[in-house]
Write a structure and sequence with these properties.
The chain has a domain at 119-365 and 417-478. It has helices at residues 63-66, 122-138, 143-150, 152-156, 169-179, 185-190, 199-212, 216-224, 234-242, 267-275, 290-297, 303-318, 327-330, 353-374, 386-399, 421-431, 436-443, 469-482; strands spanning 17-19, 26-28, 56-57, 74-79, 85-91, 228-229, 333-339, 345-350, 447-451, 454-458. It is built from 18 helices and 10 strands. With 488 residues, the chain is an alpha+beta fold.
């Protein structure tokens, strides 16, 4: 997961190197204590400076290091109480005969995917995707099966390279499904180089994409919004790092889940979740959009079998079953930054479609359970039209407000990422136990967010972009709001 290093690491001092726990870049480590060298802007260095690395490489030793055929284990530390570090191995050393990669990561350089799958190619695509899902379901610990699933978009749905000659898109996709899985090979040489665009170009591209998808409402909302896509700069990246704080050292361990029965979704509920995505919804790091899944499950020939496989995967995730190395990636996402009118940054995480489908099913159960508990203090979850009702009620209250009274509007700073996950998970088990195993799988360990070739760890609060995020946030802060007194 290391960041691209544009300068060689000096070996004159016989120092080892390590992966920063915050920016995931490779830097040299101090000899005396093994901590990462200070790096980043001089006035605002990376928070991972002078801290222990995730992994450590010994100093280079000529031919001996070049001949090495295995990689050290990659670990992530999750606080398990005051002064206790619970270190979980994400991926262990790998020999040259193993089929899986030494570390699991987001698909790299996926490139542009087609937005709609041709009808004549849908049966072949649906059948191929069903086989990939069934391999994951049959062997949840098989990293190669997970890698093939997350590279489905890059291997099958990537836009063909323009060669000047006419080609049939459906035939190309069918041929790709017949060729089978090629891992990361196709995406490695087909993806065009990234071009850094400024905020105006990003805004124009977002509006154009929504119009092409037929979602005029979303295009107008983007144009009228006071927030704009932020330009990719080092300053933007550092602001995103600040928006994703590290957990406190005294975080309490999550309650056990052995006594919890996980909610399970039916095929009808999964189909409803797939259909509720707005038109033109973006894909995660693998590029797979909800529209791709909808195209395939609506296929008469192979759609029913695919829906059954998706439902089985969703129920497996709801039950808390997932490979320990895959979970930080699957529950991570593609990170984008929006510039606020006030000058701040709003991070938005676009997760994998598979995770978002499962989260929508969990959210349907959570909102039904929490609606009565949150009303009338919170109307944003489980109450249709609740936000509009709150606005009208406030206006009427102001019009008839007695002398000497006032209305105060408060706003949380970096609200979602300021919520401690131990408190959030404890509140979930207390009031919405049916989704606790899924939330434990999603948020009990840091997840990896990809941002323009770099990575950021999400370690606190629900991700802004998770369909389940608003319900988790409102459920956790409800006791605080109930302790306040107000005539409104």
């Amino acid at each position: 997961m290391s960041q691209h290093q544009s300068w060689p690491l000096s070996q004159k001092a016989n120092k080892g190197s390590g992966v920063c726990s915050v920016c995931h870049a490779t830097h040299q480590v101090h000899i005396k204590d093994g901590t990462i060298h200070r790096h980043g802007p001089r006035i605002n260095p990376c928070p991972g400076s002078d801290k222990p690395p995730l992994t450590t490489q010994p100093p280079a030793s000529g031919q001996q290091q070049q001949a090495s055929t295995s990689s050290p284990p990659v670990t992530a530390s999750v606080s398990a109480g005051p002064g206790v570090a619970n270190t979980a191995v994400i991926a262990s050393s790998l020999s040259t005969t193993a089929a899986a990669p030494p570390t699991f990561r987001h698909p790299q350089d996926v490139g542009a995917l087609i937005k709609h799958i041709p009808k004549s190619a849908r049966p072949a695509c649906a059948t191929h995707l069903t086989s990939l899902l069934n391999k994951v379901i049959a062997s949840p610990n098989d990293l190669a099966a997970w890698s093939s699933l997350l590279h489905f978009g890059a291997n099958i749905l990537q836009k063909p390279v323009r060669t000047g000659s006419r080609h049939n898109l459906a035939s190309i996709i069918k041929r790709r499904t017949e060729e089978g899985d090629h891992g990361e090979q196709r995406s490695a040489h087909v993806a065009p180089p990234r071009k850094r665009r400024d905020a105006n170009e990003l805004l124009a591209a977002a509006v154009t994409a929504k119009i092409e998808d037929g979602n005029i409402k979303a295009a107008i909302r983007i144009l009228c919004s006071e927030e704009r896509p932020a330009t990719d700069t080092d300053a933007t990246f550092m602001k995103l790092l600040e928006r994703h704080p590290a957990p406190p050292c005294n975080r309490t361990p999550a309650p056990p889940s052995d006594d919890v029965t996980a909610v399970q979704a039916s095929e009808a509920e999964v189909m409803m979740a797939i259909r509720t995505f707005p038109a033109g919804s973006s894909g995660g790091p693998d590029g797979i959009r909800p529209q791709h899944v909808l195209d395939l499950v609506n296929c008469q020939e192979a759609g029913p079998a695919l829906l059954t496989a998706i439902t089985t995967l969703v129920n497996s995730l709801l039950a808390g079953t997932c490979n320990a190395a895959v979970a930080p990636i699957l529950f991570g996402g593609q990170l984008m930054a929006l510039e606020k009118k006030s000058g701040g940054i709003r991070p938005i995480a676009i997760g994998y479609t598979w995770r978002r489908i499962a989260a929508k099913c969990a959210n349907a159960h959570a909102t039904a359970v929490l609606a009565g508990y949150l009303q009338p203090i919170q109307l944003g979850v489980g109450t249709p039209g609740g936000c509009e009702a709150a606005v009208h009620a406030t206006r009427r209250f102001v019009e008839s407000m007695p002398v000497g009274h006032c209305v105060v509007k408060l706003d949380f700073s970096n609200a979602f990422n300021s919520l401690h996950r131990d408190a959030m998970l404890a509140a979930v088990k207390q009031r919405v136990a049916g989704i606790y195993k899924f939330c434990l799988l999603s948020y009990n360990q840091p997840s990896v967010l990809a941002y323009v070739g770099r990575t950021i760890l999400s370690q606190e609060g629900p991700q802004q972009g998770d369909p389940l995020g608003p319900a988790l946030f409102c459920n956790a802060i409800q006791p605080l709001l109930m302790s306040l007194a107000s005539e409104l």
